[in-house]
Amino acid sequence: xxxxxxxxxxxxxxxxxxxxxxxxxxxxxxxxxxxxxxxxxxxxxxxxxxxxxxxxxxxxxxxxxxxxxxxxxxxxxxxxxxxxxxxxxxxxxxxxxxxxxxxxxxxxxxxxxxxxxxxxxxxxxxxxxxxxxxxxxxxxxxxxxxxxxxxxxxxxxxxxxxxxxxxxxxxxxxxxxxxxxxxxxxxxxxxxxxxxxxxxxxxxxxxxxxxxxxxxxxxxxxxxxxxxxxxxxxxxxxxxxxxxxxxxxxxxxxxxxxxxxxxxxxxxxxxxxxxxxxxxxxxxxxxxxxxxxxxxxxxxxxxxxxxxxxxxxxxxxxxxxxxxxxxxxxxxxxxxx
Length: 337
Ligand code: DP6
Known about the structure:
- With about 325 residues, the protein is an alpha+beta fold.
- It has helices spanning about 65-85, 110-125, 135-145, 200-205, 215-235, 235-255, 265-285, 305-315, and strands spanning about 1-5, 10-15, 20, 25, 30-35, 40-45, 50-55, 95-100, 155-160, 170-175, 185-190, 285-290, 295-300, 320-325, 330-335.
- A five-stranded mixed β-sheet has the order 7-8-6-1-15. Strands 2-5-9-10 form a four-stranded antiparallel β-sheet.
- A hairpin with a 4-residue loop joins strand 3 and strand 4 (about 25).
- About 50% of the residues are buried.
């Protein structure tokens, strides 16, 4: 049996829209921070038939939807195909039993699929020794695009070779700098614990229908991804703030103008963003905001701003708050193979 653990990541340059939907090959590069909370553990074993059990943060078994089970089975199929392409066809069992233990409330914009599929990829790699971290990130990506980034710790880029849209290996993650390079903190303010109605997978498929999509991809390819990497390497918070917030609004503009339109942000999101903008101007705080596919606001800051940011977050009485730091990426906890 193999047990692997992983965590979500928060994107600074966001992944939105694919070159190839089945293989989750993104249109553009993305960039993120791997968080240290909340953790997901995946245990995997040989099994005559595919079985899947998932447990909620309180330990009760989660009733899985047909489509969630189908997604994990499809991921196993795609993983086998990828292993075949690198001449490791029989490296993982023909069928597996999977147990997922997650501390993440589902579908609230803190990337539960990224933590789950990166932990699954790491667990498969426990059976298939000899895979590189890059290969493992490709396996994670086949389940969820953003999951590729949680294989690595610290600051991570997902890089594309866009010349071939059917090459499964043409998008993979790599580490820009480890978690000790520049300690940043993510204070996560969740206005609603309600599950979102349209998930990212469906949203990605329609991104190209937005009139702003092409321009967005060009901006990331020509400038934004590199600006973000430079800001990280030089620890330039003002630059990181500018490019991250620009990219966040740009992605939500694409989402809101695609067909059908996706409005993930709500009044609480806009209120929090306005108040944080005012607070940081007044107190000169190094803090930036960013939102994924949900109303949840991520406030990323250096240690200097942490106290004020956490005080602000905990004063939002109608919201749930999570606190995260940075982490080293997916890992194997136990391997009895
Ligand atoms: C808005 O990785 O969740 O969080 O591949 O369908 O699982 P799937 O999509 P997913 O998309 C993430 C979208 C995002 C931005 C990001 O994390 O880069």
